[in-house]
């Protein structure tokens, strides 16, 4: 005869708390007003997809001046999108206390020669550089080329250090930290900052998630250029760009050709590079295919960020992070 044992009191309490959190989420989704400080159809549809009632979602386009003011006052670092998202939110007129208010901002980031392969532990304290929206098509090409050459330079630096370690000239003390730093330094970071004001709160909360694009095609250019290209350190992107390519021309010429391919792909899909941070629409499958991109999630997890590469971040709406933030907040109130 099977006996039925009572659940542990902690299990019952946890189950009850979970049910209350689910009920609160349901009320939020069904009846709570939502204000989105953006005219982005992608972000509006994202909020609806996650469960909010479409009839309750109101978009309030933030003026361009809100973002422009932040760019004038801020330095180029990865805190910038948080400031832009906050400025967008503050541009929204007063709304009811029982409403949600969301704002987002997305920027592209790189690590321009800031992570030392010999000291990979500095990754956690080093801030990357953000690449802003270009002012013209030509500026978009220049920005894309700068990003591509920078990640290639970092790839070469880490490859050189690894080769020296293999020869016994130096040592990699922490392999895991080294690999994490290599990914950060050689990846193109799409980072979305989100500001949200929950119903009944006077304060806004800031969240951030990223997806890191690893452009394998760019790495292969270095490997194809010269079998000994990683024997000695390369100091600057200018030096890298001037290196000869095996089929003629220079690495810089080859990279310029890839930039042209990317821009032509975007044009064929009706995407304007001037409206995109960094000038490149990494959200497009065709662009990712052109660059041979593999992706990883944010290297530092906090329970809110996606633990898998979330491609929705490319489009400025971090779907997993929004859902996790709502769930965690509902649980904290239950």
Description:
- This protein is an alpha/beta fold.
- The protein has eleven helices and seven strands.
- Helix 2 (41-50) links the parallel strand 1 (34-36) and strand 2.
- Residues 1-6 and 69-78 have low confidence and may be disordered.
Number of strands: 7
Q: Give unreliable regions as ranges.
A: 1-6, 69-78
The 3D shape can be described as globular
The tally of helices reads: 11
Mean pLDDT over the residues? 86
Given helix and strand content, the structural type is alpha/beta
Order of helices and strands: HEHEHHEEHHEEHHHHEH
Strand content is: 5-15%
Distance linking N and C termini: 38 Å
Q: Nearest-angstrom radius of gyration?
A: 23 Å
The major pleated sheet works out as:
7 strands, mixed
Helix coverage percent of residues?
40-55%
Key features?
334 residues, alpha/beta, 7-stranded mixed β-sheet, globular, disordered N terminus
Give the topology.
Blueprint: H1 9-31, E1 34-36, H2 41-50, E2 57-59, H3 64-73, H4 80-90, E3 100-110, E4 129-131, H5 137-166, H6 175-186, E5 188-197, E6 205-215, H7 216-225, H8 237-242, H9 251-268, H10 285-291, E7 293-297, H11 319-332
Parallel strand pairs: 1-2, 1-3
Antiparallel strand pairs: 3-4, 3-5, 5-6, 6-7
Helix pairs in contact: 1-11, 3-4, 5-9, 9-10
């Amino acid at each position: 005869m099977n006996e039925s044992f009572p659940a542990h009191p902690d299990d019952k309490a946890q189950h009850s708390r979970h049910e209350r959190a689910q009920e609160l989420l349901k009320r939020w989704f069904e009846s709570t007003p939502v204000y989105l400080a953006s005219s982005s159809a992608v972000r509006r549809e994202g909020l609806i997809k996650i469960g909010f009632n479409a009839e309750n979602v109101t978009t309030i386009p933030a003026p361009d001046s809100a973002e422009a003011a932040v760019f004038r006052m801020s330095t180029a670092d990865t805190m910038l999108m948080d400031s832009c998202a906050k400025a967008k939110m503050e541009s929204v007129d007063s709304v009811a206390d029982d409403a949600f208010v969301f704002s987002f901002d997305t920027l592209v980031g790189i690590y321009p020669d800031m992570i030392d392969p010999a000291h990979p532990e500095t990754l956690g304290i080093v801030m990357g550089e953000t690449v802003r929206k270009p002012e013209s098509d030509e500026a978009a090409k220049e920005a894309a080329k700068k990003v591509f050459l920078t990640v290639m330079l970092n790839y070469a630096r880490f490859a050189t250090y690894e080769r020296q370690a293999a020869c016994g000239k130096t040592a990699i003390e922490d392999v895991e930290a080294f690999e994490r730093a290599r990914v950060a330094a050689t990846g193109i970071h799409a980072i979305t900052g989100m500001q949200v004001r929950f119903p009944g709160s006077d304060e806004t909360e800031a969240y951030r998630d990223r997806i890191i694009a690893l452009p394998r095609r760019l790495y292969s250019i270095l490997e194809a250029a010269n079998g000994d290209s990683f024997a000695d350190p390369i100091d600057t992107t200018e030096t890298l760009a001037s290196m000869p390519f095996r089929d003629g021309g220079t690495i810089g010429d080859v990279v310029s050709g890839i930039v042209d391919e990317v821009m032509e792909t975007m044009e064929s899909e009706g995407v304007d590079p001037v409206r995109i941070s960094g000038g490149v629409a990494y959200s497009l499958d065709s662009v990712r295919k052109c660059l041979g991109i593999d992706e990883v999630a944010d290297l530092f997890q906090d329970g809110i960020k996606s633990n898998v590469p979330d491609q929705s971040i490319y489009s400025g709406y971090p779907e997993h992070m929004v859902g996790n933030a709502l769930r965690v907040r509902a649980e904290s109130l239950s």
